[in-house]
Structures are given as structure tokens and as C-alpha cells.
Amino acid sequence: MDRMSALRHRFTRFVQLSLCSLGLGMAPLWAQGLPSAVVTTPQVRAELVAHAPQGVQAGQPLMLGLSIQHQPGWHTYWLNPGDSGLATQLQWQLPPGWEAGPTLWPLPGMIRVANMVNHGFEGQVLLGSSIQVSPTAANAPSLELRLHAEWLVCKEECIPQSGQFVLTLPTRSSTASHGADFEALLAQQPTTLKPPSQTATLQPQALQLRVQGLPAAVHGRALKAYAQTPEVLASGLGLGPTIAQGEWLGDTWHMNAPWHAFRHSEPRTLGLLLVDESAAQAWQVQLNIEGDWASVQTSTPVAPVSPASNASTGTISPASPLAFVGAVVGALLGGLLLNLMPCVLPVLAIKLLSLSQPSVTPRVRRGIGLAYTAGVLLSMLGLALLVMGMRAAGQQLGWGFQLQSPTVVIALAVLFTLIALNLFGVAHVRGAWASGLAAQLARHPLADALLSGVLAVVVAAPCTAPFMGASVGLAFTLPAWQGLLIFISLGAGLALPFMLACWWPPLADLLPRPGAWMVVLRQALGFPMLATVVWLLWVLGQQTSIDASAVLLAALVVFAGVVWAWGLQSSARVWTASVFALALAWLLWVWGPVMTRVDSSASASASAEQGVTWQAWSPAAVEQALQNGQPVFIDFTAAWCVTCQVNKQTTLRDPQVLQAFAAKKVLLLRADWTRQDPAISQALAALGRSGVPVYVLQAPGKAPQLLSELLSPTVVMAAVDHL
Fold first, then answer.
1. Which of 83, 109, 458, 577 is the most buried (most CB within 10 A)?
2. For residue range 259-295, what is the model confidence (pLDDT) as tens digits?
């Protein structure tokens, strides 16, 4: 007993020292992850500020705002960002009963970027909101007010950034250090014209504006116009000299405002902001648009119709019989090849290993094959219906969209860690719960096979195999019944190898007999699972930050400790598992927000790394290059796409390939779809694709040439030689 007590004491001391070391080692991440009133990046300094000169009084308003100081050359965006960009988003987290009003925007400026015009802010800017305090506000000496803000900051490159802000506001004393900034913001708020609602007339190439009610003092002055809805009217209205300018006819301001190059909506009302920059004044008016939209000319080539884009018409044309059969066959072949992808092969190997168990009779084997196939087909149909439904609702999604969410990446990392622990023999469920209904279902071979089929679809979703790219892209543009049949064919191809092994005796006879090798192989298969976890950690780092990967890795280590401790036979099982569980809870409570927060410095360094050869993709960059007579090569990629990374390492970084691009002066553009980007989703849909990788080579005056999903230096150089 003395020896056992000494061992327990040493083990407890080891756990304490380990947790202490973990806390000291991760302390910098903790400090970095704590929210504060100020967030500083290499591009901006953002601060949550308040204006409450009378203190916080129940039922009375106060002002809150986000003050952004841009570094020289950088800018963020207004409500309508213009030709590119994203508007800054403010999400207030206030005490119960408090209400935040709409965002108060300062007057935007027009920022030229190459041949584009953006609407946004440079230098110092304050975005504010009027906050209504609850009539029953607590009489505490201070209150914590929180804000989650997201903004896109751009110079030559664009970097999405975000911040978690917290401000401790005293309730019984005045807060007015930023009073001048808030007064300037309120002074810039636009005046509503009289009448507040006026008419505009549709023209084939422009919207005819006739605005009345402007004050006499502004008559004759040059005004700039901003549509309050993006991608309806052209950007830079009134900027001149090559962009439309307004003119005065008596007391009425006139302009024929051209349509935006990417206009895709047909609104009947439109908010318009008119700005007199010389006096820092603005007026707003609501336009009722009159005329027939059918007479309006489309300024850009019509892309292949997607369910989201033709929802207004209510009609979707079916594919021709030949095209539909080709898509079905392509999906079947693509599903077969998915079994060879690194993300799917371990799951298939584990299921094939289970067929060698002595208890698996031919009848049971056939049932397992049917259950696995049912799991694959049902999951594939569910995923297809989800994507089609969300695209019909206006969301720009595609194959593998779920891995654009850091939360899904974290959940998959936990799942694959648990699978690896199970393969190593560490994750054993013990105790009374093991006799429950859930455990009985999990141990049933048919239920296990069904869940394995679901898992195969989950891990296969981010992969795109040859033959399936065009088929899946076409499926999202067809009537539902044709699209679902294509996805059924894809699922059938994914399930076919395992189904054949279960139902075809000669193939099943090739499986080796049970023996000690099964334990070795089972444990060996745990390492591909851990390799998948490493890949998911890297994906999370690309989406958020290296800090997020470190926090998730630490959480997985402690989680593994919980699983290991719960499997112990000794009486130390409960308290050891409790120690690990408490450590895990503390880790997630303190550092959990770090795992889903974007680190702008990581994005900036990634942009700098690819900026030597590759440039960030944008529709404007493609159009500008083609107008200048320069061919372009576009790499539609994502960090979670294994095929993309293989092609990048083996082909797109090959010196001979880069030399061939340079010889033809090909502009290299990279469209990174790691995080959701509607512009990239629309571009993929226009190419008849819904997932990555996609490789496009385009020369001026020629149609885009799509290369194979599996690249080789020979294929790329041959395509470049034909330019």
C-alpha cells in the first residue's frame, strides 16, 4: 500500500506540473486572445469608444462606436463597397433590455484602384450607433459592453480582419473623451429630401435620375452619388472625367447613371446618397424605379444559369439526354476514384478489415454492404438537398462548403482523434452505460456499417476527383430530379468497391484470414487518422491563425487524456478523468474563442508569400489582364482541399512550369476558397463547377480552357504552349 500511495503521489505531482507547464507555455496565447477595447493589426488600429456625457441613465440613449485608424494606403469599406470589397459589420453584445440602432456611417469617399472605384474610408473614421439603455438598467458602478466587428482592409491586397472588443463603461460619471468625433459623425448624417420618395426611369444602359428638393445653396455644385444597394449602379458616380457626372437643369439635379458591371438584380426601389464634398453635406432619397426591366441591356456575358440566379423566373431547363448521361457516368467514375483519395481510403480500409472477423458470415457480410451503401446514398442525398436548398435561397455554396467553417474543421479533428484512439485500443467504453441502447446499436454490425457510410461521405466532401468536377457543377444547375440522380450516381461510385467486396464471393475470398496481423493493421490504421488531424490543424491555421491550431492541438491532447483515463481499470479512473476534463473545460473557456478568430497578420504573411509569383484573384484583375492582351491562369484552391495541395507542390511550384508561364507572360491568379467567398462561388458556377480544384487558362479573345483536376507539369506546359 505504501508503494501504491507513493506512485499515486508521484502521478498527481506529474499531472500538476504538466498542467502548470501547459499554462505557462500557452500564456502568450491567452493574453493575445483576451478581448479588450483596442485591436491593433499592421494595417489598422480599431478601438471601441463611447460617448455618455451624462453617464448611463435608465431609458436614455448613449453613443457607441468603432474608431478605425488606417495605416497610409489602406482603406476599409462603406455600406456599398463599390466595385470590390465588403462593408464593415458591427454586431453589438449588450446587456438585456438594451437596443442598438442602425449603424451610423460617415460620408464615404471614392477610392480608385486600377480601373475600379471603391467606396470607403482612409485615415481616421468612426462608425457609430445610438444605444437605448434599458428602463430597468442595473444600478451597478460599471458595465461591460461588447462588440464583434468584421472588416476588410485593402491596399494592393485585401485582408479580412475581425476583433472582439470589450469596454468597461462607468455608469455614474461622464464619458466624453471622444465627444468631438461623435459630433462630427452626427453632423455628417444625410438629410432626407422632400419629397423623400422620387422617381427614376429605366434606360437600356443607365438609370435616369431626376432629383428635386436639394437646397438652393448647393445648386450648381458638383455632387457625387452613391447607391445604397451594392451592384446596381456603377461605382464612382460623379467622380469624372470618364465616369458619369451630374448636371443641373434649374433646381433639378440630373444624371444618367450607368448600370454596375455585375448587376444581377432588378429592384423597384433604390436608396440614393448625394454628397457635396466641398461642404461635407449629404442628402438621401428613396427612388421608385419606373419602366420595364426587360429593356435593360446586360453589361456582362451571361454565365451558366444556377438555381440561385434563375429562382426569379421559376424555370430551370433540364439537360439534354446525352449531357445528362455523360454527367451520370462522370459522377460514377468520380465516386469510384474518391475511394483512392487520402481522406477516404483509411475509412474504406477499416471497413474492409472488419469483414475478416470470424463472426461475419456471408449473409452478415451482404447486410453490411447494403447498410454501408445506404449510409453513403442517404448522406449524399442529404448533402445535395442541403446545398441545393441553400443555393436556391441565395447562398453561394459548393462541394466541400462545410470545411469553410472553422467549427466544422474543429469537430472533424475531434472525431478523427477519437477514431485514432479507438484504433489504438485506448478508447474503450466501460461501465453501465455500455449496456444501454445506444451502445448496443453502435456495436451492431449493420448500424456500424451505416454510420461508416455516413462518415465516408463526410470525409469525402472536401475532395474532388477526376470526372466528378463537371458532373457536380452541372448537378447544381439542373432540375432537382436530375441533380439528385447525379448525386446518387456519385454515391453509388463511392460505395461500389465495398459493396462488391461484400457481395462477390471471389473478391471476398481474396481477403486474408483472421490472425494477429489484424491487431497490428488496426493500430497502423490509426496513424492515417492522426495524419488527417494534422491536415485539419493546418486547415484551421489557414482559416484563422497559427494560435488557433496550437489551442486546438492542446485541447486534443487533453481530450485524449480524458479518453485514456476513462478506460483505466483502477480506482483512479474517475479522479484522473476528472482532472483532464476540468483542464479541458478550462482550456476551452479561456482560449476557445481564439480557434475561430481570424488573425490578420497570418493572412498578410500568406499574401506576401504568394505575392512574388501569384496574385490574388478578382474578376476585375482577369478583365484588366485580358484587355491588355495578357493571358491568365487561375488556380481555384482551398487549404482543406488535399488534391489542391498535391497539385500545388508537384506542379504549380515546378520550375519548368513557372518558366513556361513566364515565357508567355501569363498572369498567375489564385482564388482562395478556404473561407466562404461569394465572388469565387459565382465564378465557379459560371465555369460549370461547384468545388475545387479548378484550373483555368484563358487567352484574350478565347474561351476559358479548363484543365484536369489532377495536374502534371506536362499537361500544364502543353496547354501554355498552345497560347
1. 83
2. 887 777 788 999 999 999 988 899 999 999 998 888 7
Dihedral angle sign, alpha carbons of residues 449, 453, 455, 460: positive
The CA distances from residue 699 to 210, 623, 627, 629, 663, in Å, are: 42, 11, 10, 8, 14
Q: Are 375 and 491 in contact (CB under 8 A)?
A: no
Question: 265: Cβ–Cβ under 8 A, 6 or more apart, which residues?
Answer: 229, 231, 232
The fold adopted by the segment(s) 601-721 is Glutaredoxin (3.40.30)
- pLDDT at 312 > cutoff 50: no
Percent helix, strand and coil across the chain, each to the nearest 5: 45, 20, 35
On the question of a common fold for 191-295 and 601-721, the answer reads no
Q: How far apart are CA 71 and CA 123, in angstroms?
A: 7
Strand-pair partners of 199: 288
Distance CA 720, CA 707 (A): 11
The radius of gyration computed from the CA coordinates of the chain, to the nearest angstrom, equals 30
A 10 A CB-CB count for 623 gives 15
Q: Mean pLDDT for the chain?
A: 75
Q: Residues 6 or more apart from 132 whose CB is under 8 A from it?
A: 59, 61, 98, 99, 100, 101
The interaxial angle of helices 546-566 and 573-591, nearest 10 deg, is 160
Grid cell, residue 435, equals 449496456
H-run or E-run covering 162: strand 158-170
**What's the grid cell of residue 255?**
444624371
Separation of alpha carbons 151 and 155, rounded Å: 13
Domain boundaries, the chain: 38-187, 191-295, 321-404+441-522, 601-721
The CA-based angle 398-453-419, given to 5 degrees, is 100
Q: Give the residue carrying C-alpha cell 458638383.
A: 222
- Kindly indicate whether the domain formed by 38-187 is annotated with CATH number 2.60.40.10: yes
**For the chain, what's the residue count?**
723
Number of Cα atoms under 13 Å in the Cβ half of residue 547: 24
Task: Express each pLDDT in 344-360 by its tens digit.
Answer: 666 676 667 666 666 67
What's the CATH fold of domain 191-295? Answer: Immunoglobulin-like (2.60.40)
CA dihedral 692, 490, 308, 544 (to 10 degrees): -40
pLDDT of residue 257: 92
Tell me what the mean pLDDT of segment 607-630 comes to: 76
Can you give 247-271 as a three-state secondary structure string?
EEECCEEEEEEEECCCCCCCCCEEE
Tell which residue, 62, 227, 77, 73, has the closest CA to residue 150: 77
Element (H, E) at 275: strand 269-276
Q: Are 700 and 624 in contact (CB under 8 A)?
A: no
Question: Which residues, in sequence order, are bridge partners of residue 40?
Answer: 45
Average confidence (pLDDT) over 329-335: 75
| Beta bridge partners of residue 68, listed in sequence order | 46, 125
Rounded to 5°, angle at Cα 145 from 142 and 148: 165
Lowest mean pLDDT among 403-412, 415-424, 438-447: 438-447
Contact between residue 127 and residue 89 where contact means Cβ atoms under 8 Å apart: no
What does the DSSP 8-state code read for residue 704?
Answer: -
